[in-house]
Amino acid sequence: MTHVFDTDDLSSCIACGFCLPSCPTYRLTGDEASSPRGRIALMRAVEDGQIDLFDPAVLEQGSFCLGCRACEPVCPAGVPYGSLLEDLRDAQWRGRRRPLRIRPLLAFAVRPWLVRLAGRLRRHAGFTASGAAGSGTGTTLMLGCFERVLFPGVSRAAARTLPDVAVPSDQGCCGALHAHNGERELGERMARRLAERPGRIVSTAGGCSAHLAAVVGRDRVLDYSEALLQAGPLPAPVLVHGRPARIGLQDSCHLRNGLGVSEPPRRVVRALGEYVEVPGAADCCGAAGSYSLLRPHDSEQVLAPKMAELVRLELDFLVVVNPGCQRQLITAVRRAGLRTRVLHLAELVELAQKGSS
Ligand code: SF4
Ligand code: SF4
Question: Which domain does 15 fall in, by range?
Answer without folding.
Answer: 7-92
